[in-house]
Design goal:
CATH architecture of the largest domain in chain A: 3-Layer(aba) Sandwich
Radius of gyration of chain A: 20 Å
Number of domains of chain A: 2
Pfam families (chains A, B): DHQ_synthase, DHQS_C
Number of helices of chain A: 13
Oligomer: homodimer
Strand content of chain A: 15-25%
Largest sheet of chain A: 7 strands, mixed
Protein name (chains A, B): 3-dehydroquinate synthase
Strand order of the largest sheet of chain A: 1-2-9-6-5-3-4
InterPro entries (chains A, B): Dehydroquinate_synthase (IPR050071), DHQ_synth_AroB (IPR016037), DHQ_synth_fam (IPR030963), DHQS/DOIS_N (IPR030960), DHQS_C (IPR056179)
Structural class of chain A: alpha/beta
Distance between the termini of chain A: 52 Å
Number of strands of chain A: 11
Shape of chain A: globular
Largest interface: A-B, 34 and 33 residues
Catalytic activity (chains A, B): 7-phospho-2-dehydro-3-deoxy-D-arabino-heptonate = 3-dehydroquinate + phosphate
Organism (chains A, B): Mesorhizobium retamae
Chain lengths: ~375, ~375
Amino acid sequence: MSKTVTVEVGLGDRAYDILIGSGLIARAGETISARLPGTRVAIVTDENVAASHLEALKSGLESGGVAVAATIALPAGEKTKGFAFLQEVVDAVLGARLERRDAVVALGGGVIGDLAGFAAGIVRRGMDFVQIPTSLLAQVDSSVGGKTGINSARGKNLIGVFHQPKLVLADSGVLDTLPIREFRAGYAELAKYGLIDRPDFFAWLEKNWREVFEGGDARIEAIAEACRAKADVVARDEFETGDRALLNLGHTFGHALEAATAYDGARLVHGEGVAIGMVLAHRFSARLNLASPDDAVRVEAHLKAVGLPTRIADIPGEMPGADKLLDYITQDKKVSRGALTFILTRGIGQSFIAKDVPSSEVLAFLRDSLG
Amino acid sequence: MSKTVTVEVGLGDRAYDILIGSGLIARAGETISARLPGTRVAIVTDENVAASHLEALKSGLESGGVAVAATIALPAGEKTKGFAFLQEVVDAVLGARLERRDAVVALGGGVIGDLAGFAAGIVRRGMDFVQIPTSLLAQVDSSVGGKTGINSARGKNLIGVFHQPKLVLADSGVLDTLPIREFRAGYAELAKYGLIDRPDFFAWLEKNWREVFEGGDARIEAIAEACRAKADVVARDEFETGDRALLNLGHTFGHALEAATAYDGARLVHGEGVAIGMVLAHRFSARLNLASPDDAVRVEAHLKAVGLPTRIADIPGEMPGADKLLDYITQDKKVSRGALTFILTRGIGQSFIAKDVPSSEVLAFLRDSLG
C-alpha cells in the first residue's frame, strides 16, 4: 500500500484535513465515520464518474458504517452548474431528510464539487460537506478552499457561497483512468503553485513531471504540495479580500480565452486556458520589465514539455482580435470598482497582485501576442 | 425630531449597528454613505411596500449620494420566497453590475428581507447587505441575526445562508401605516424577548403597551430593547448550534399551527401562531411542573389584552386533531437527529432548551388543549 499524506487547512473552527493517497475511496466509510460520527450522507456525482466509481464509494461507505440516504447522479459537464440542478440537488437532500450534521458528499470533478458544495452550504443554512475529487484539477484546486457556486448567464461562478468541507479525500489512484488531456489540464494548476510562490516546487516538477504523470508516490507528493500551497493562501485570506487573488495567476487571460471559445471544451478546457494564461502573464511581466524574459521561456518550455498549449495560436479554430479579448478581460469578475487587476510576476515563484494595470498596455500586449 | 437609538450586534468582524428611530428612510443616503463609502445599491422590495415607501427611499438614498443601480419590486406574500424569485433577484443584481462591496438593500417585511439577504449572500459569494424592515415583526426579528433564506416544498426556510447585514435601519415611523393586525403579530415577537430572559421588559410591556402601539419614544425603546435581546443571543450563538434556539420560544407549536392552516394568512399569521405557541409553551411547562400555572395565566392575559389570539380555538375554521398537530411538530426543522426539542420555561423570563421531550407528553397536552 502506498502512503497517505495529510494536509491540514488551518481555518480555526473551520479547519479540516485533506487526505491524499491511493485507495481512499474504498476506505471512505471508516475515514468519515471516525471524523464525523453518526453522519448519514447524500452522494452527488455525475453520470460518467458514477459509472467508474459510484459502486466502489457506496460499498466503501457502507462497509465503514456510513449510511447512504440518497444518490444524485447528474449529467456530466459545465451546463449542470446552474440553478435548475442546484434546486434538484437541494430537493433530493431535503427529501432524504438529512440534517445539518449529516453530509453531502461530492464525488466528481470541479463541476460536481462546486454544485454539491453550494447545495451543502444552503440546505438548512449549511450542512456538512465532504469532497471526493476525481480529477487532478479538482484535487489540487477546486476541492480546497471552500469556494462553491454555479454559473449565471452573466458569467461563471458568479453565484455561490464560501462553505468549507469537513474533509477532502483525494484518491490519487482514480487519476489513472483520467484521459491524458484532462490530466494535463489539471497539471497546469499544479504547476501554478510553483509559479506563485514555490520556485523549488516548480524546479522539482521540471525534473519529476514524468513520475507525477505515471502515478505512485511522486504523484501523491505533488498533489500534497499543491494542496499545502493552496491551503497556505486560503488560511491567510479565506474570503478573498487580498492575497487569495494570487491563485488567479494565469486566470485573467485564461478566462478571457475560455470565453472567446464560448467554453467549448473541444477547443479549450480550463486548465489549458490557465497554461496559456500563465505563459502570457510571464511574458506580459517581462514586457513591463518586471521579470526576465528567460523566466517566461522556462515556463513555456516546461508546460510545452508536458503537452500543454502555451500560445493563443495553439487553440484550434478562429480566435477574436485583441480588442474583443480585452472586453472579455474587463468583464471578468475579478474587476474591482473598474480597476484592472492582474497577477504579475518578478520571476518564477515571485508572483504578486498588480492593481491599476493600464488597459492600453494589455491591449498592446495582446495585439503582439496574436500577431 | 424623536430620538434615534443605536444597538450594536457584536459579531467581531461581522459586527453591525441597528439604528431605530423615526424618519430613517428619508436619511438613508447620508447614513449609508457614511458607513459604506462609495457603495451603489440594488433595492429589493414588494409591490405593496413600494407603493408606500419606495420613492421616499430612493430620494433619501440619492440625496445622500448613494446611487440606485436597480430596483426590484416583487409580488407581496410568502409565495415570493422561492427559487424562482431568488433567481430573478440574483439576475437583476448581477445585471446592474454590482460588485462585492456594493449593497443589496431590502425594503420590506420578513419575506423581502429573507429573500434579498439570501441573494446578497450568494451573489459573488457574498456582497454587502442593508436591511430596512418595514414591519414590526421584521424590525424586531428577521432583520437581526443574519438568517436569510427561502422556502422549499418540504418546509419553510429550509434553504438559505447566514449572512449578516452591514446595517439595519428600523424606521419606527413607517409602522404608523401598518394594519393593526400586522402590528399586533409583530408585537407577539416583541413580547417574546421578555418571556425568554428579560422579565423586567415583559413587565414594562404590560404597563406600556398602549404607548408602544401609539408610536413615539416608547415604541422606539421597545424595538431597541427587543433588538438588544436578540443581538445578545445571536452574539452568543451566531450559527444556531446552541442558545440561539431560545428564540424559537412559542415557535414549535406556532409553526405546527401555521402548517395546520396551510399558511393561510387570513386564518393565522406567523406572529399570531407565535402568540398562541408562547401561551401553549407556558401552559405545557406548567403541566410538566416546571413553572407556576400563574405565569401562563399572566402571559395569556397580556397577549389577549393587546388583541392577540391565545388559544387554538381562537383560530377561525376547522383545525386538525392532536395526532396531526404532533406530526407537524415532528416534521418541523428544529428536530435534531429525531429527538423532540422544545423551548420550555421555569417562569416569565426563564425559558430554556429542553431536549428529549417525550412525544407522548406533547400529544396528551395537545389533546387537552383542543378539548
